Each structure stands twice: as structure tokens, then as C-alpha cells.
């Protein structure tokens, strides 16, 4: 028995568009490439420490270290650098929870530190990370690895290793999900409107 | 997020746990070369102390400075208070100076509550009369959690002058919120009969320390306030020490893992002997160190964001 068609609303609400930029397999390939680039640029990752910026920089840093040890059989120390207390927008939001900072046992003094984050946008997170870094030690040099660079920098900061450059409009947003934190690897671009 | 910290009852389990977790992160700063965080840069914290205090005031000062706040210390001695200025006028003066937080210790119970109505900033109770001292309860809870790994299910004996103790009141409130069981121990004259009903219904009362000791995880000794000794709450200091003081033989009745706490300042030989105070079970020095971390967490959570 057929039901009569439901009354149609005059115009369906416009959905914000969602576009998958990197699927799961792409994310793995991109991580592999960054791992190779780090090995290449740091002469085999000698004296190198990977520091992930929470939340998603941390699993990314661990994956990079795992891939580096697969490719070259070297162990790269991995740590976590929480930047909450160094943010320049602390006062604009309700109090943020402070997360752990966990440096590898050898510390970072005199090492080459590679900061790892998921998305590079305004550059303010990296600015905060640089401040945090100078309070916990004195690395010989600091580099930056990001899965996605979406542009719109507000500070003179650039990444040394970029997984994918995504040209975006300011109104759009980029969302990275990772298996460790969200259940699946994916990079999506939200925003604009459906045509 | 709460705006003031006036009582142990202001904190629900989630907020209290958040403070303890934040304090654990703040504690790592003490081990760094640069013992400073920029989180409260440009904020002003006033320490308003109407009563003598060393560790609490210094602890709050160190906590605020480690978070880069500006600290103004105000003690009633040598201020306009001796000229007769009221608490309200002092509060309005601080308000005009732009204090973002006022840490207040006052001999009158309830003074911080009054103050909270007069100033725009956050008020932190650093001890009011015989009422409450919530940051002490937080640092005690932090110390227990650090030593014993948990708070839920712990059995804590609080021993001594419960009647006049703000530390005891705040601890009963906070510990019961966090799932620990508290037994108050002391002479009948120093334990208000209605205190379990008034504060936390699960609280027990005992007048026999020796019977309680074998079953506790934590024994917290309260200071016998010398000014009370003349008030005939107990016959003599010696009799008090004999019945309610923690000495070596009593300490050995405790379970193997149990810890001994004291909020300080101690009367050695009165409520606690030197042997106990200096034993590995004693957490008295840790409590002081943890106090800075816990107060950093409280100041950060009250002032760190835009919570207005």
C-alpha cells in the first residue's frame, strides 16, 4: 500500500557542504612522506625529538616516529607539549583544561625538535608552542610538521613539512580525524554552500 | 566554572577532580628550570590577611607569582585597618585598584562570603574564623591521592579540635564529595554533636582514637590551638596528649600503608610527637609543597579564562 507523498517544505534548508580532502589511505601515504622528508632533512633523524601538540598532534607524532623506525631502524623520542597556558586567547574563552606535558627522558636541550600538529592555520598555536618550548628547555633548532596547511596565517610562521596544502576560504573549516582520537583517519573541509 | 571558592561545598566532584588534575600538571612546573607560566599575566591577586599566617600566605603568593600574576600583599597590621577601616571600605579600595582576585583570611566566620558581594573579582577563602579553609582541604585531598592513588573509598580519621577547626569542616565536605569516608575523633567537648548532619551525613564520630586507628587509611591530626587550652575543653594538655596525641606506639597500630597528615603549624609533643612527624608516613612537608600546586590550579581555574 502506497502512502501519499509527504508534504514538501517550500525550499529545503541549505546544507553546508562537506568535502573529503584526504581519505584514510591518503592520510597514511602523507604521514609516510613526511616521515621520509624528516629523515632526509635531518640526516637520518639524528638528535631529533618529535613533540606532538595536543590533541591530534600527539598521535601524529607517534605515527611519524613509528614510520621513521620502520624505514631506517632508528628510534626517535616522542613527547607531548601542552600549550594551553601559553595561548594568547585564554581570556576570550571559559577556562580551558590543562593537559600533560610529557618530554622524552633525554630532554630537548641541544636537540632538533620537530613540533607536530594536525592543521596549520593562523600560526597562533605554533607561537604558543614556541613559547612553551623555551620554558622547558633549549633545543638546538625547532622545525614544524603539519598534516594540513590551510593558509590564512596571522603570524610570520611557516611549516618545514606539510602533508597537504589546502586552499580555503576563511569561512570554511578543516577537520582532521584520526583513528586514535576519533575512530577513523580523514580530513574534511566544511563550509561554503552547496551549489 | 565557579567564580569564587568560599567553601568545600562549592565544589562538586567533577570540579574538585579538575582542580586536582590541574594541580598535578602545575606540580611539574616546580621541577623545571623556568618555574613560571604566563597564564595570569596582567592579572592582579590581592592577599588580604587579617590573621597571622605564614604558609598559607606564602603559598598563595608563590602560586600567583608562578602564574605571572601581580601580587599585592595586605596584612591588617600596619594598614588602615588599625585606624578603624571596615572590611567593606577595604574591599572597595581593592576594587578600585582593579583586583582580579582577593585571597582573604579573616578571624570572623563568613567574612569571605560578605566580601564576595562587594567586589567584582573572584574571592578565595584562605581561612575564615572557625568556618572553612577550602584550599587546605584541596591540598590534603591532593596529597592523599598522590600517596594512596585514589580518594574514593578511603577512610580518613580527623583527630582533635574539630569544634574550632576550619580545616576539619572543609575536609569533611570535600572528602565526602570525593567519595571518602570520614571519622571525626576527639574529646566530646571538641566535637559538635550535629556536625555529621550539618556537613555530610555519612560522617562518623568517635571518642576513642585507639579503636579507630587500625581501620583507617589516613589520619589527619589537627592543631590544638593554644588559645583554647585555657577554656576547659579538656582537663590538661598532658591528658589530651595521652588520649588523643599521635605517638610512636599509636602510629604502629595503623595499617601498613596508612599516612599521617597535619595542616601545620604543629605542636610537637602535644597532638603529634616528633617521632611521628618526622617518620616516612608523615606527609607534612609534602602538604606544603602540594599547597602551591593546588593554589596555582585554583587561581588558574578562577582567573585563567573569561568566566564572567
Question: What tags apply to this protein structure?
Answer:
heterodimer, A: 195 residues, alpha/beta, Rossmann fold, five-stranded parallel β-sheet, three-stranded antiparallel β-sheet, globular, B: 308 residues, 2 domains, four-stranded parallel β-sheet, 13 helices
Characterization of the model:
The complex is a heterodimer of chains A (about 200) and B (about 300). The model of chain A has no long low-confidence stretch (mean pLDDT about 90). Helix content of chain A is about 25%, strand content about 25%. Chain A has about 200 residues and is an alpha/beta fold. The longest helix of chain A has 18 residues, at about 25-40. Chain A is built from 4 helices and 8 strands; from the N terminus they run βαβαββαβββαβ. Chain B has 2 domains: about 10-135 and about 290-305, 3-Layer(aba) Sandwich (Rossmann fold); about 135-285, Rossmann fold. The radius of gyration of chain B is 19 Å and the shape is globular. The mean pLDDT of chain B is about 95.
User: Beta-strand percentage of chain B?
Assistant: 5-15%
Average of the residue pLDDT scores of chain B = 93
Give the ordered list of helices and strands of chain B. HEHEHEHEHEHEHEHEHHHEHH
Q: Ends of chain A: how far apart? A: 36 Å
- The CATH topology label of chain A is Rossmann fold
Protein structure class of chain B:
alpha/beta
Binned, the helix content of chain B reads 25-40%
Q: How large, in whole angstroms, is the Cα Rg of chain B?
A: 19 Å
The CATH homologous superfamily of the largest domain in chain B corresponds to Aspartate/ornithine carbamoyltransferase
